């Protein structure tokens, strides 16, 4: 089976009308969108998804942000898609994310507590399979 990763377009990306642009970049790179849905996260899904960050100072602002509006969940598929999508997304902080990346081209600091950085991408095979199970069943 080909490698799969979980992509979330966060509430800022959906609200700013960037869903199509972000999916376009994934497809233009050559990955396949295998699953796709617009949804609103539940507190339970976010507790599971962000379990590794529980207790960190940005945890509660992050969860509140993720609950603030609809998101788009997708499974992208292809050889190397896990590091490949993280490379397309760019560094976590959109202010310093490289131009050419989703966060670098489309994101910035909006002066808020949480880093609104448009997308999430799984960081390992284990995370990807676990996270896909949270958002798709
Ligand atoms: P992601 O999980 O969303 O793909 O992003 P990432 O791996 O680049 O970042 P991670 O360290 O996993 O953090 C998850 C999300 O929490 C927010 N964050 N804010 N210091 C901060 O203000 C801070 N650090 C992290 C970001 O929204 C980040 O994407
Ligand atoms: Mg992460």
UniProtKB/TrEMBL annotation:
Name the GO terms of the biological process aspect. CTP biosynthetic process; GTP biosynthetic process; UTP biosynthetic process
Q: Where is the catalytic site?
A: 120
Tagged with keyword ATP-binding:
yes
Provide the transmembrane region boundaries: none
EC number(s) from the headed UniProt entry: 2.7.4.6
**UniProt-listed Gene3D superfamilies:** Nucleoside diphosphate kinase-like domain
Enzyme class, first EC level, given as a word: transferase
Q: Among its keywords, does the record have Kinase?
A: yes
The protein's superkingdom reads Bacteria
Q: Which reaction does it catalyse?
A: a 2'-deoxyribonucleoside 5'-diphosphate + ATP = a 2'-deoxyribonucleoside 5'-triphosphate + ADP
| Pfam hit, one | NDK
Matching entries from SMART domains are given as: NDK
* GO molecular-function terms, A-Z: ATP binding; metal ion binding; nucleoside diphosphate kinase activity
Cofactors (names): Mg(2+)
Residue stretches making up the Nucleoside diphosphate kinase-like domain: 2-137
Q: Which CDD domains does the entry link to? A: NDPk_I
> What's the family?
Belongs to the NDK family.
Name of the protein in question: Nucleoside diphosphate kinase
> Could you tell me which species this protein originates from?
Nesterenkonia sedimenti
- What lineage is on file? Bacteria, Bacillati, Actinomycetota, Actinomycetes, Micrococcales
